[in-house]
Design a protein that fits this description.
Layout (H helix, E strand, L loop, with lengths): L6 E6 L7 H15 L3 E6 L13 H5 L8 H10 L3 E7 L7 H9 L1 H4 E3 L5 E3 L5 E7 L6 H4 L3 H14 L3 E8 L10 H15 L1
Parallel strand pairs: 1-2, 1-3, 3-6, 6-7
Antiparallel strand pairs: 4-5
Helix pairs in contact: 1-8, 3-4
This protein binds flavin mononucleotide (FMN).
Length: about 200
């Protein structure tokens, strides 16, 4: 692999093939790859991830004591990437539980704490993009924290982990307008250009 090549990890938290999230992420993936980036997509729905037991051992050992599953393997991929793109539909004003489970299991690989208990971000210098969708129509998807609730919750995780969020995209009103508008397709291409080069 060329050393200058951007390594992009896309996490798709929608279980729906050809849904809005899938389509937006596919455009970003294809475009970024065409621009020379090394891109991999992880579909959360294809992983098995056990629930966090809250034992807190990982905070000392910096490793999860649960048997290896999709959580540890995805953390390895996040560590190896320069850019993280997360696509998540809005479920109850937040990210899907399956994605939250992943982040619950990998706290130790995202942020640490110093001796005084001050958070230490482990992914400083990396970039992130957040994509969300929901049936609530614009501007209520923003005002009532529907897709905006997803963006806000993911920002919380990514910022404490050191990522700089360079773009967000929210598609509201997916019930009546499931297809991507031209302006949305173009925004995906702009995002791909931003992260690939
Ligand atoms: C379990 C569940 C909960 C949902 N909760 C909300 C919600 O709180 N607000 C909303 O606007 N849409 C909600 N939706 C609708 C999805 O966000 C919407 O269908 C979205 O476009 C799905 O994206 P996808 O097809 O790319 O997976 C929910 C859908 C499901 C399946």
């Amino acid at each position: 692999m060329n050393e200058d090549m951007k390594r992009i990890l896309i996490i798709n938290a929608s279980p729906r093939r050809r849904g809005g999230i899938d389509r937006m992420l596919t455009i970003i993936e294809d475009e970024a790859r065409a621009l020379g980036a090394d891109v991999e997509t992880v579909r959360i729905s294809q992983l098995t991830i056990a629930a966090c037991t809250g034992c807190m051992v990982c905070r000392k050992k910096l490793a999860c004591i649960l048997p290896e599953d999709g959580a540890q393997s995805t953390l390895g991929k996040i560590k190896a990437s320069d850019v993280l793109v997360i696509g998540a539909p809005c479920y109850w004003g937040n990210m899907p539980g399956t994605l939250k489970l992943l982040f619950d299991r990998i706290v130790y690989g995202m942020m640490d704490e110093d001796k005084r208990g001050i958070p230490v971000a482990l992914h400083k210098g990396k970039q992130a993009v957040i994509i969300s969708s929901c049936t609530t129509v614009w501007p209520f998807n923003i005002l009532f924290h529907q897709s905006r609730g997803v963006v806000r919750a993911l920002k919380e995780i990514l910022k404490w982990s050191g990522f700089r969020i360079i773009a967000t995209m929210e598609k509201g009103g997916t019930k009546n307008h499931p297809d991507l508008k031209e302006v949305e397709r173009r925004k995906c291409i702009r995002i791909a250009k931003k992260i690939a080069i």
